[in-house]
Amino acid sequence: MDAFERLHPGLQYHLANTLRWNGLRPTQADAVGPILDGQDTLVLAPTAGGKTEAAVFPLLSRMAAEDWQGVSVLYVCPLRALLNNLTPRIDGYCQWLGRTAAVWHGDVGQPQRQRILLHRPDILLTTPESLEAMLVSTKVDPRLLFSGLQAIVVDEIHAFAGDDRGWHLLAVLERLSRIAGRDLQRIGLSATVGNPDELLSWLQGGFHTRPRTVVAPTAASSVAPDVTVDFVGSVANAATVISSLHRGEKRLVFVESRRQAEELGSALRDAGIETYLSHSSLSASERRRSEAAFADARDTVIVATSTLELGIDVGDLDRVIQIGSTRTVASFLQRLGRTGRRPGSTRNCLFLCIDDESVLLAAGMLNRWSEGWVEPIEPPAHPRHIAAQQLMALCLQEHRITAMARDQWWGDLPVFDDTADAIMAHLINEGFFDADGPFLHIGPEAERRFGRRYFSDLTAVFTAPPEFLVLAGRNEVGTIGTDLLTQEVAGPRVLLLGGRSWQVTHVDWERRRCFVEPVDSGGQAKWSGFSGGLSFDITRGMRDVVLGRLPAGVSFTERATRTLAALRNTYSENADPDRLVVRLPDDAAGRWWTWAGTAANRTLQASLPKLVDPRQRLDEKSVRLLPGVSVAEFGDAVAAVDWRHPLVDANAVRGLKFSAALPLELAVATLAARIGDRRHAQDVFDERRVIAR
Asked: The domain at 226-250+294-370 falls in which architecture?
């Protein structure tokens, strides 16, 4: 019996007659067997590769065959917009079999939530934060709501696993398994990753003995994508190129910051191009308006940050344009996969680099891509702050816990390590918990720090900088940081948001409200942000470019070619295919050209205090040495290296959500372990070196 025949007859009928499918895609067919057999499964496929159907169709077949009742499948996504996009589609599939789907997230009103509680859907779509809120809510009985739960689908799992949201999700899933009273089948949907087996093992959490299967694409497309790198020198020039090229086409332009999105969007509108924006500081209604208008249009552009990198449907795209370069191969693949979906169309991506270094980064990243390499997903080390958050969340959920709660609810989940006892003692000693005999209750310190709106601060595991809500009348435009409202300006204060200019009329500092009215032009955009730097592998790809290698299957314009030639001239003396170059001039500070990535260079800086200048701003290519270091001193320092984690300042600790619920030394150790890269720093030590003056 082939995969299609194993699906429920009702699904077979609608696939053939409603969707007019001749059969399943190879990835979908390969997923049917393991999911129907109850195995934990990771499905890998590019954007628009049919991953949702690969999970939902066999789960609906199981649901019908085994008569699952109530909320039997949870479908978890990283973005509300993605949930809103998926819910009508999944609900349509459910209706074929007389089943229902519904969505629950922060934008869903109380009436709809009440309907869900009264008439439990078969598939509930949500985010990890909303799931946590349901577990701790006084208005939700999680044991009733999830009594029939059988399976969890985690969409875009690669977007979770690389940060603390992933650890938080795993911990919540462990609690759900205990509430439901059964092991839950876990299905992950992901773009291509470099370590699929490890990612599936991570998703299994404390249930590693369950059978599991990785479903990967059976063959790559025979049509090579059209990838071009150009150098344009500025955002304004990028707008000129975009406005003059590809007229009549639907273009999705990715930028690397909200500020850049606003600047480019404004420039494109000034050039007469129908332009929409999508980024995280725009209101949900503004983003939905932009995405819907873009989906229905043709000769238009949408400028987006990574908010549109995931599988949100904005219709058939003709072209993807990248301003600058992505910092990872994985991100490039996600963006490339937004094109080439129509029969006869080709996947494509045009890089418009606005500075020299972005040309080098694009070429280096594409070098690794052309080799078939993709970043492995590595969950952040030592999620001790998540352990503290989970203990408090469990106490809210159960109203009281004992000191043994972590063993009962999380087993050997690596959220908890050998510091768990110290974390629990800290929570008790500092008043986050009140002890009543063997039982622990939420204490006054937890209420003071996280109790706002019934502990809503406890459900999100990341810290966002304080922002003001921007209101035009009663309409939410989006949010801005405090910098734009506090800096000195001559004349009226004008903001740039949503690609439009707004004059500030009033600021309510206490309620964090900024009231505006539209004006014709001008304005600034600015948000705080942090870049974690470039990885070892991408940096080595950049060194390969300096040494003369270019990625196969990629076109470079004359402008990009000239820029690369200048970059090679700049860096050629500091890149060697067999050795690392160490420059030790007699009259200036030396430099060690490691080409090791930012995190590895941080580790070298911390571990060699007598050699590496502690005051420098590190990059990915090199570390600056202290002035006057001799050849002998360099050799002695390297021979006596004492490996240490990078130093962590107090501001960084305050930026770690729930750091207050940890002993200070544990919070510092957690961050220090995350910002360095001992493994690749050691690789630098093991490589041959040449000393140059």
From this structure: 3-Layer(aba) Sandwich (3.40)
